[in-house]
C-alpha cells in the first residue's frame, strides 16, 4: 500500500488541535489518527486538510474545523454497537469517524451532489458502515430509530421535535442551536423520558434547511 503523505500532518493535528485542547476520549483520538481527512476535502485542498479551520466543500457548504468535529464526537459518548444518526453528511468525514467508533452510522444529506461526493470519499478512504440517505434530516430518519446518539452538523433555530422523539432512552443528541450566523452548541440527554440540556459553548455552522429547521430556497 502507498505510504500516507499526510501522516505527520494528521498526527500533529491530533496532538496540538485535539489533545492540546482537552479532548481525551481514546476512541475519538484513535479515530482521528486513522481517518485520512485529506480524502474528504475537494481536489486542490488536500494540503489544507489538517489546518485548524473549516474548509469549503462546494454548494456553499463546509467540512467543519477538526477540533469542533472532535468535541462533538466526544460529547456523543459513543460505544461500539451504538445506533447513530448524523444529519448533514457534507463531505462524509464526520460520518467516517462515527462509523470507526460505533461500527455503523446512518447519515442524512439534503443535497444529492454532496451525498454522491461523500459516498465517493468514503469508498476512497475504505470506510464501511456509513449509509448515506438523501432527504430532509430535520425530520430524522424513522426507519433506524431509536438512536443512542444523534448529531446535527448544521445550525437549527431549535432542536427538531422528530429528532428528540427518535432518541433512545439514555440517548445523547448534539446540535448547534441559535441564529443563522453563530450558535450555542447544545447537548441533550434523554433520561427516564425527560430531556436534560447542557451548553457546550459558541460555534458557527451553516444552516439546517428543512421542515423543522430554517426555511430556505430549494427546501425539500
Ligand atoms: N458533517 C459534515 C462533514 O463531516 O463534512 C459537515 C456538514 S456541513 C457543516 C452541513 C451539512 O448539512 C451540509 O452538507 C448541508 O447540505 C447539510 N444540510 C442542511 N440542511 C439539511 C437537512 N435538512 N437535512 C440534511 N442535511 C442538511
From TrEMBL:
Catalysed reaction equations from the record: [protein]-L-isoaspartate + S-adenosyl-L-methionine = [protein]-L-isoaspartate alpha-methyl ester + S-adenosyl-L-homocysteine
Entry keywords, A to Z: Cytoplasm, Methyltransferase, S-adenosyl-L-methionine, Transferase
Record keyword Magnesium present: no
Function text: Catalyzes the methyl esterification of L-isoaspartyl residues in peptides and proteins that result from spontaneous decomposition of normal L-aspartyl and L-asparaginyl residues. It plays a role in the repair and/or degradation of damaged proteins.
GO MF assignments: protein-L-isoaspartate (D-aspartate) O-methyltransferase activity
Top-level taxon of the source organism: Archaea
Active-site residues, record numbering mapped to chain: 64
This protein's GO CC annotations: cytoplasm
Gene encoding the protein: pcm
Compartments it resides in: Cytoplasm
Record family assignment: Belongs to the methyltransferase superfamily. L-isoaspartyl/D-aspartyl protein methyltransferase family.
E.C. number(s) listed in UniProt: 2.1.1.77
Enzyme class, UniProt record, top EC level: transferase
Transmembrane regions listed in the UniProt entry: none
One annotated GO biological process: methylation
Protein name as it appears in the record: Protein-L-isoaspartate O-methyltransferase
Cited InterPro entries: PCMT, SAM-dependent_MTases_sf
Amino acid at each position: 500500500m502507498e505510504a500516507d503523505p499526510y501522516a505527520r500532518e494528521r498526527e500533529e493535528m491530533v496532538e496540538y488541535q485535539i489533545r492540546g485542547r482537552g479532548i481525551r476520549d481514546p476512541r475519538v483520538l484513535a479515530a482521528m489518527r486513522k481517518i485520512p481527512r485529506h480524502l474528504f476535502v475537494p481536489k486542490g485542498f488536500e494540503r489544507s486538510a489538517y489546518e485548524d479551520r473549516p474548509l469549503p466543500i462546494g454548494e456553499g457548504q463546509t467540512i467543519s474545523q477538526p477540533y469542533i468535529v472532535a468535541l462533538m464526537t466526544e460529547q456523543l459518548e459513543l460505544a461500539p454497537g451504538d445506533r447513530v444518526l448524523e444529519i448533514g453528511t457534507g463531505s462524509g468525514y464526520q460520518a467516517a469517524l462515527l462509523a470507526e467508533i460505533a461500527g455503523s452510522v446512518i447519515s442524512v444529506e439534503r443535497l444529492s451532489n454532496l451525498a454522491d461526493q461523500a459516498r465517493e470519499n468514503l469508498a476512497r478512504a475504505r470506510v464501511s458502515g456509513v449509509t448515506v440517505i438523501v432527504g430532509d434530516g430535520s425530520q430524522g430518519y424513522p426507519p433506524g430509530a431509536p438512536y443512542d446518539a444523534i448529531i446535527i452538523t448544521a445550525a437549527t433555530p431549535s432542536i427538531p421535535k422528530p429528532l428528540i422523539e427518535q432518541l433512545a432512552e439514555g440517548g445523547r443528541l448534539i446540535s448547534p442551536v441559535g441564529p443563522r450566523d453563530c450558535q450555542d452548541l447544545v447537548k441533550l440527554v434523554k433520561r427516564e423520558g425527560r430531556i436534560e440540556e447542557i451548553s457546550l459553548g459558541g460555534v458557527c455552522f451553516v444552516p439546517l434547511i428543512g421542515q423543522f429547521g430554517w426555511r430556505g430556497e430549494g427546501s425539500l
